[in-house]
Design goal:
Blueprint (H helix, E strand, L loop, with lengths): L1 E8 L4 H15 L3 E8 L7 E2 L4 H15 L25 H5 L2 E4 L9 H6 L7 E4 L37 H12 L5 E5 L2 H9 L7 E4 L14 H8 L6 E6 L11 H15 L5 E6 L13 E4 L6 H10 L2 E4 L8 H8 L4 E4 L4 H4 L6 E4 L4 H12 L2 H18 L2 H15 L1
Parallel strand pairs: 1-2, 1-4, 2-3, 4-5, 5-6, 6-7, 8-9, 8-11, 9-10, 11-12, 12-13
Length: 416
């Protein structure tokens, strides 16, 4: 069996890392798995990226070209992909050799809506692993509180549009035509995203399966806290609160402002926080210059798994206050490293966090409850150790890379 994964990049960003891990998981159990990406960063020979200066320059311009239609609206700058222009890779030899095509995150100028429809002509099963909502919306990657994607979009709040026939309605209609004749099966990592996909009329007749992400638990594993802190040159005797994601402080969806409020509220609960410390990765600063009642370290970007495992292991708690999220890698990684997680009860968070067993699920956007959750975990060291053990057990039980890979193989074989 030959499986071909298509993603914008191979290892940069959450969706890319998840797609690449699946690719490696399949290879580890002797599946002939390959990737085609628009922007190759790794040196993995099984990943095929663009070659030539012209291709690479053009790749940088495509995302901006896709944004041109949005200039006619009062667009809020939220993640949005029109899918109007991309790359036609249908003639690539790998596509003709493969038995199954597995789409992942193909936005940012990689595949247009038309490029996706051309795949139907190859007559091969197409599995689309969704990492956000874009596949069934009129262009947004996360819809917020808007549910117009259920029918046909239009009057898009992210574009501040009051016209039913705006660009989101036209993008939605192009997707409806593109999916006709496509032998498509959708996979979502979280139950929440599966329910969203099923509600969309674009996928009303499409099979939707839930297969969680997997990761290498021999890399993401508990490391002695003192050792991890020594390697990273962190405080040895403080309680470290960890927060991080891609664009962690600038992406509003990741909830850094809510973490800021929760920590300030924590000072009201506990009082003196001189023994606490906040460690942030995924950003080197915050443009809003938030003030905290204790020290903060913006550690910047970490791209390799070993360094990330050290980060999680150095922390006493990981906080993921996302306002919308699918099944973020960061939460799974933290659990695998034995670090309990506090998050809002939203999206795929309840799939991973068992309330008061391996972490804490706070009420949505409830800052006081979020701070109570942080305090609940950090307040008792023996209690925290039990949570840490449960977190590791959850990862070993549900997020092993081999388990994920075998579930995909079962699906591929059935479709073939």
């Amino acid at each position: 069996m030959i499986v071909l994964h298509l993603n914008k990049t191979d290892i940069q960003g959450g969706a890319a890392r998840a797609a690449y891990r699946l690719h490696l998981g399949l290879k580890n159990i002797s599946v002939d798995s390959k990737m085609i990406v628009d922007d190759k960063i790794s040196d993995d020979p099984s990943v095929n990226g663009l070659v030539g200066k012209v291709n690479k320059v053009w790749s940088r311009f495509l995302p901006f070209i896709n944004e041109i239609p949005l200039k006619f609206y009062n667009w809020e700058g939220t993640p949005f992909y029109t899918g109007c222009i991309g790359r036609n890779i249908a003639k690539d030899g790998l596509l003709r050799q493969t038995d199954v095509i597995n789409l992942h995150w193909v936005a940012a100028g990689f595949l247009s809506i038309r490029n996706i429809s051309i795949l139907a002509k190859l007559g091969k099963p197409v599995v689309w692993t969704l990492h956000d909502m874009w596949a069934f919306t009129g262009g947004c990657h996360y819809s917020g509180e808007c549910e117009r994607y259920v029918n046909s979009c239009g009057s898009c709040p992210q574009l501040n549009s009051d016209k039913d026939g705006d660009i989101t309605r036209r993008i939605w209609a192009r997707k409806e035509r593109a999916y006709e004749g496509l032998n498509l099966t959708v996979v979502t990592p979280s139950r929440w995203l599966a329910e969203c996909a099923k509600r969309s009329s674009l996928f009303s007749d499409v099979r939707v399966e839930v297969i969680p992400h997997g990761l290498n638990t021999s890399i993401f594993k508990p490391i002695n806290k003192s050792t991890a802190r020594s390697i990273l040159n962190l405080h040895m005797n403080k309680k470290i609160i960890l927060f991080g994601a891609t664009s962690s402080t600038s992406d509003k969806r990741k909830g850094f402002s809510f973490l800021h409020k929760a920590i300030n509220n924590l000072s009201k609960i506990i009082g003196n926080l001189k023994d606490y410390y906040l460690l942030v990765f995924g950003a080197s600063h915050s443009k809003n210059n938030e003030t905290f009642p204790f020290g903060i370290n913006y550690a910047g970007k970490f791209s390799d798994d070993v360094s990330l495992a050290l980060l999680y292991s150095s922390a006493d708690v990981f906080v993921a206050p996302s306002l919308e999220d699918n099944l973020p890698n960061t939460v799974i990684e933290s659990l695998a490293c034995g670090t309990p997680v506090v998050a809002f009860n939203v999206g795929g968070m309840p799939d991973m966090i068992d309330h008061k067993k391996n972490g804490y699920l706070a009420k949505y956007k409830d800052v006081e409850d979020l701070s109570q959750g942080i305090n609940w975990i950090l307040g008792d060291e023996n209690h925290r150790k039990k949570l840490a053990e449960a977190a590791r057990n959850k990862a070993e039980r549900e997020y092993l890379l081999e388990v994920q890979a075998r579930r995909y193989i079962e699906l591929y074989e059935e479709l073939i």
